[in-house]
Design a protein that fits this description.
By secondary structure, this protein is mainly alpha-helical. The protein has eight helices and four strands. Strands 1-2 form a two-stranded antiparallel sheet. Helix 2 crosses helix 7 and helix 6 packs antiparallel against helix 7. The longest helix has about 35 residues.
């Protein structure tokens, strides 16, 4: 009987681990490099291209220090802005609406707003193609006003296209980090919490056996 209860407790612990550890979604088909260097390159691309039209109101310049940028590098990004200021578009809302017919959305939480956010962002950036009529369209968002910022649709060299795809992955990873900067810390803490719960369950089982032994 005691062995049966012990096996039951072990099964419960295994189920707890299975349902607590974050699983990888099968819908994500793109492999991403989540290294610090990749995040930094994605941040540079965002600074040089995406920030021309898009804001990131939940990201402040001082947060860039967390992914390995030096103070001097951040100073080049922010120029005359304060470290506590958020990343603002280089284009005014009025000018952007005049150019695109709509104000470009804030990208702080875009990686969370879409299912499989990084994969969606990557596919969006590399989804541009030239139609038979010579019009550049995006197969993910056909009616988008955003231009082909990476010039992916007109690039014909194989190696150059691979480099653009790498750049798109890096931007997607940077946007995922911006949407949830503490995600890795929570995952690491989750493993320790699971280990603690398993150890605590084992201790409680030993205490239970000792108590019931006395009662018998």
């Amino acid at each position: 009987m005691n062995r049966h209860k012990f096996r039951t407790i072990l099964y419960c612990c295994l189920l707890l681990i299975v349902f607590t550890v974050p699983a990888r979604s099968g819908a994500v088909e793109v492999e991403f490099d989540r290294s610090t260097d990749s995040l930094k390159r994605g941040a540079v691309t965002f600074q040089n291209l995406c920030k021309l039209c898009h804001d990131m109101k939940y990201l402040r310049y001082q947060n860039l220090l967390e992914i390995g940028f030096s103070q001097q590098q951040v100073d080049k990004f922010r120029k005359d802005r304060e470290m506590q200021e958020s990343l603002k578009s280089s284009t005014t809302p009025e000018a952007a609406k005049l150019l695109f017919g709509i104000q470009p959305p804030d990208l702080s939480l875009m990686a969370k707003a879409r299912k499989n956010g990084p994969s969606y962002i990557y596919n969006l950036l590399t989804g541009y193609h030239e139609t038979a009529g010579g019009v550049i369209r995006n197969q993910i968002l056909p009616d988008t006003s955003m231009p082909d910022v990476l010039a992916y649709s007109i690039e014909t060299d194989v190696q150059a296209r691979e480099q653009l795809e790498k750049t798109a992955r890096e931007v997607a990873m940077f946007m995922e980090w911006v949407a949830d900067p503490k995600a890795d810390q929570r995952r690491r803490m989750g493993y320790w919490v699971i280990a603690y719960l398993v150890f605590l369950t084992f201790l409680l089982y030993l205490i239970k056996r000792r108590v019931w032994r006395r009662l018998r």
